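Trying the structure run again after the queue cleared.
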Amino acid sequence: IFYAPLRMLGFPALTALYVTLACVTVLACTLSSCALSRIVSLSKLEAATIVYVSHFGLSISGYLPHYQLFGFELAFPFFLYLFLYLRDWKLLDLVAVLFCFASGTCFATYLGPMLGCLGVIVALPFVWSEIKNSGVRGLLGKIGTSGALCVLLVSTLVYLIQIRPYIKADRELETQSFS
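Done. Tokens:
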């Protein structure tokens, strides 16, 4: 979301990368702070501490030589907004979840299956409770056509932009013998 426009504006590759990493970090911290303020009532110091520890904890030292790991900056807001979506069933929360998922996956493709699997594990109790209370039709009604279309659109974009190029490249590589 930031790198390509910066490159088109003439920024050198390394500068564009560093500005992108800084912008993603600020964006992730902002998303986390906004989500936290909707989940629980915290003082500004408490919220800042949680956001700081979540985004700048011990693992940040591993990010520096591996820019792909900056995708994990979006994992914390992904789970916060996933919780908010499953609690409130608001389309905007789903859009935030999908944004974090797609953007994080653009840094590192392997983040997609990780967030997907953990997201399903987090979502199962909420979905099961909703099915018990309202039935499958009630659940589908809360997700709505707009929610399903958003998921379909983002899934298609992630496939076309992130996954399909890998599949094409893999077919063009020679088979390697590991024996």
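The mean pLDDT is 88. Worth checking whether this holds up in the mutant runs.
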